[in-house]
Amino acid sequence: MTAAPGKGIYSATKFAVRALTKTILLENQKYNIKATSICPGIIWTDSTIDKLRREGLTKDDVIWEDDIVKTVRYLLSLSKSSY
Question: How far apart (Å, rounded) are the C-alpha atoms in residues 23 and 37?
Fold first, then answer.
């Protein structure tokens, strides 16, 4: 995650989600409750294709919705001993 010109609100909300997740994690460690956040970058979706192409990006330059789904499934599959 990084800040970027013209992306102030977007960057701020990404940082806020990360801070909130870390707070939830720290406040609930004593109960063995875990928390994580997934903050993907540019995602190739039906609603972003045109904009991404105008910016000169291709399918290989970005991640796909399915990549996020796979990540969430992986995280949910971890046993308690994994973390």
Answer: 11
- The count of other CB atoms within 10 Å of the CB of residue 70 is 11
Distance (Å, whole) CA 35 – CA 25: 5
Q: Yes or no: say if 16 and 65 are a contact pair by the CB < 8 Å rule.
A: no
Among candidate residues 71, 72, 69, the one with its CA nearest the CA of residue 45: 69
What is the pLDDT tens value at each position of the chain, 83 positions in all? 777 788 899 889 999 999 999 999 999 999 988 899 998 888 888 888 898 899 898 888 888 889 999 999 999 998 766 55
Q: Write down the domain spans for the chain.
A: 7-39, 40-83
